[in-house]
Structures are given as structure tokens and as C-alpha cells.
Amino acid sequence: MSLELVGVRFGYGRAEVVRGVDLRLDPGELVGLIGPNGTGKSTLVGLASGLLRPAQGEVRLDGRPLARYGRRGLARRLAVVPQRPELPEGFSARSVVAMGRAPHLGFFAAEGEHDRRVIEAAMRRTDTLGFADAPVGSLSGGERQRVVLARALAQEPGWLLLDEPTTHLDLRYQVEMMRHAARLASEGLGVLAVLHDLNQAARCDRVMLIDGGRVAAAGTPSEVLRAPILQRVFRTGVRVHPGERPTVVPE
Hints:
The protein is built from nine helices and twelve strands. It has helices at 41-49, 71-75, 93-98, 113-125, 141-154, 171-186, 198-201, 221-224, 227-234; strands spanning 3-12, 15-25, 30-34, 56-61, 64-65, 78-81, 159-163, 190-194, 206-211, 214-219, 238-241, 247-250. β1 (3-12) and β2 form a beta hairpin.
């Protein structure tokens, strides 16, 4: 069982932004996707989620091409926290989280006891119960991001794709978001996270470095987060304090 991108290529018009990428995400692991801006990281999330279809190659979930899953069936298995979520401003935070139950409910079906337990658990895990009744339009960027994560958890997915999940979060919630991601992976989810902070990527099980739409390096944090590799890809000086979880410092 895995989520796989095999020889995937994709472009916008004549501009090819993903060039033959192979990526495998297994249950129980947290994989960090890093690289300079504009190198195809968010596009890879779109391909992995089925939002985009590759021009070449294939995306497979549990051995089946993603294209064979209906939208509802796919949403029961895979959830996405987008980089710029659009939320219905007049809805309460709880109502938004409850939308995550839609793949499990029939048309016009009311929430059952199990659905309510799942929603409450998702909000407790993301520290959003305190403003459950507040309109999402009144929330800060960080609070909204946590609501979107709670909505994704309410889907009860086996795979979770996070596109820059720490954007707009203060330091405390950046740390907590990565703890959430690591804990979810330890509980058996496959978690893929697009990250800008290389020191956050060091907390992942594996790291994939993308440059120009291609895989520049892949492996454990200690294998990928090395000064010569990072200097070549990011085109700036860095110092790396080595270890199982390296620390990267700009020069």
C-alpha cells in the first residue's frame, strides 16, 4: 500500500514544471518536500491529490491509478490542506470542520453520533474547539489554517497532503503543526508536507529536494540536508550542523 508518482511530467502551457518525478509515500511516514520557490512542489501536491492530471507518467494509490477513483472514494482515502484555503466566511469553525464528513455521508444525510465524535476529536487535536462557534471570517490566518487541518482530519484519511502547512502560523503553532504531522504519521497515516523551513524538514522521516521540476536529492534528512547540495540548489551559502536531525543556518 502506498501513494506513488511514477515518471510524472506536467506543464502549464509550454512551460514544463515537473520533469519525470518518482515519489513514493508509505503509511506511517512523514516526507518533507523542499526546494526553491517555483520548482514544482505545489504542483506535485496537485498531481498527488488528483487535482491535476500528469501529461506523462501515472499516480497510483494502493496500486490503482488515481484516475480510477471517484471523487468521493478518493476523498475517503486522501485529504489535502491547501496553501491558500478558501473558506465560507459566514460559517462557524465547527461547520467548516464538519464538511470533512461529506465523503462519508449520503446526500442530505444528517450527522450521526460517530460523525460528531470524529469532528470533536479533529478539533481537539488541532486546538480549535475554543473557537468552534466563531465565524471563520473572524479568525486569524493561523487559526484558519488549523481549522482546515481539522477539516482534513475529519475525513479520516489514510493519506494527508500538506501544502506549506506552517504558512501564517506563529512559532508556537509552526512547532505544533509539525508535531501534529509527525504524530499522524506515527499513527499510520502517510503524510507529505511541502516545507520552506529546512529545519522543519529535518524533523521528517525522509526528505525530497526538488530543483527545476526534478528530484535533486532524496533520502533521510542527514543525507539530503548537506551544505554542498543545499548551496547548489538554493544558490546561497549555508552551514549545516550534522546529525540525525541536521540544523541548517544561512551564512
